[in-house]
User: Which sequence fits this backbone?
């Protein structure tokens, strides 16, 4: 049996017996028999371009290939599931074949950090934390994250989780770190923005911002863009463009290339694409700024007059389109050059997280506990992925797999266009040598041949 296509526990379904072509027997007639399977996880195919050969699970002519094709067309693209402590995760990060997650309990007390093999779903290491942590940054085999409770920035060996060094900050750290040119950057609750040497963990310089930095800074062309809250809750925050190269008086003053305080901006993440910086505000605007000067190029409020619900997450840019969302569940596409609205779509639940894009498809989580995929050109709804989370589901897009937090698990599933094609798999079955009778089992939302779980996408129309 191909070790890359391991079976999973068999739910109620239908069995097509090869000696009786085309006849399905309801598995419900055998409901007293326990479902069996060799393991409770799925291992991915290592090469999605090559299809498995079923030498031991032959397909004799008595198999109803049309019925098998119908079952193949219904399959879901599950690769593996990883069970973690806690009931939700922060946004996963994928780097160098490893998935990093922060799993947290509902009361925000306990937290466990995990490194998971991207292909197999096997745990590489875990670290327990007392309270909240930032997201991760990974570069050159080193993993970085900040700790609120310990007031530290940590550097870990990405393969083993072993601590390499720690940087002690004056106050709790929660901003996502970013690494650039031998330096890791992160902010603390005392409004300090720190630049730390990645080899030694020693501080190189720090900068005092207007408010607390809680998001992820962005680096472009040796300039780091840092957003922060206002001094008070209702006070506007600020966006800074800081040179990573200039030093000047105490290494601080001449680092500021420009600073702005957009109305309604409170430290949300920013997006850089080309010569533009994009951000959202809580008074309903999407703002495009010149990244070199800070000049505002355009503002857009992409909904009807009188609606004051906020654009909460940061926007994403793909091609010549910008995608953003409103907290009430509306997703928008704007022209990235002008801010003109192209389309809008409504999801069945509030949105608090940012959209993500892959191959012209927009993915976004909503409070209906689904991750929705939307055609980026038309706004047409495509697929959904079951998910869970306190607000919106946490997810991350890989090359051929989407990773979604759901029910205390991180679920890895093929995209519809990434799993082996149904028609090709059927041809493999037809071409396989006849060695023994084969049993095809239609398991509600998947298919197996003699216990081999097939991961295939929908049949081509």
Assistant:
């Amino acid at each position: 049996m191909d070790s890359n296509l391991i079976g999973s526990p068999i739910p109620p379904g239908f069995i097509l017996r090869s000696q009786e072509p085309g006849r399905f027997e309801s598995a419900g007639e055998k409901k007293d028999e326990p479902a069996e399977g060799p393991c409770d996880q799925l291992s991915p195919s290592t090469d999605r371009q090559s299809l498995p050969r079923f030498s031991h699970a032959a397909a004799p002519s008595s198999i109803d290939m049309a019925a098998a094709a119908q079952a193949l067309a219904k399959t879901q693209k599950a690769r593996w599931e990883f069970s973690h402590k806690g009931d939700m995760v922060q946004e996963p990060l994928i780097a160098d074949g490893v998935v990093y997650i922060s799993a947290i309990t509902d009361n925000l007390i306990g937290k466990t950090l995990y490194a998971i093999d991207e292909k197999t779903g096997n745990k590489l290491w875990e670290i327990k934390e007392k309270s909240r942590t930032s997201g991760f940054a990974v570069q050159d085999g080193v993993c970085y994250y900040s700790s609120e409770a310990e007031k530290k920035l940590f550097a870990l060996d990405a393969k083993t989780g072993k601590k390499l060094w720690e940087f002690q900050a004056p106050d709790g750290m929660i901003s996502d770190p970013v690494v650039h040119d031998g330096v890791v950057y992160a902010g603390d609750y005392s409004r300090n923005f720190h630049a730390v040497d990645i080899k030694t963990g020693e501080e190189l310089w720090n900068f005092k911002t207007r408010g607390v930095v809680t998001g992820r800074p962005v680096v472009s062309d040796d300039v780091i863009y840092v957003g922060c809250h206002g001094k008070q809750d209702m006070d506007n925050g600020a966006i800074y463009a800081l040179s990573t190269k200039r030093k000047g008086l105490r290494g601080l003053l001449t680092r500021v290339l420009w600073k702005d305080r957009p109305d309604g901006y409170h430290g949300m993440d920013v997006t850089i694409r080309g010569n533009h910086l994009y951000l959202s505000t809580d008074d309903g605007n999407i703002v495009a700024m010149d990244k070199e000067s800070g000049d505002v190029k355009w503002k857009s409020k992409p909904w009807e007059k009188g609606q004051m619900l906020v654009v909460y997450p940061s926007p994403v840019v793909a091609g010549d389109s910008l995608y953003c969302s409103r907290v009430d569940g509306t997703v928008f596409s704007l022209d990235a050059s002008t801010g003109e609205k192209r389309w809008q779509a409504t999801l069945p639940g509030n949105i608090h997280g940012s959209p993500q894009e892959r191959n012209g498809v927009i993915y976004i989580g909503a409070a209906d506990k689904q991750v929705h995929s939307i055609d980026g050109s038309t706004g047409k709804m495509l697929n959904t992925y079951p998910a869970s989370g306190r607000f919106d589901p946490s997810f991350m897009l890989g090359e051929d797999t989407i990773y979604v937090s759901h029910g205390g698990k991180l679920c890895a599933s093929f995209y519809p266009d990434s799993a082996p094609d149904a028609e090709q798999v059927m041809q493999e079955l037809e071409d396989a040598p006849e060695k023994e009778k084969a049993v095809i089992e239609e398991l509600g939302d998947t298919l197996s041949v003699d216990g081999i779980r097939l991961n295939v996408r929908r049949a081509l129309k």
Observations:
- The CA atoms of residues 20 and 361 lie 43 Å apart.
- Residues 14-77+421-454 form one domain.
- The helical segments are 65-73, 422-431.
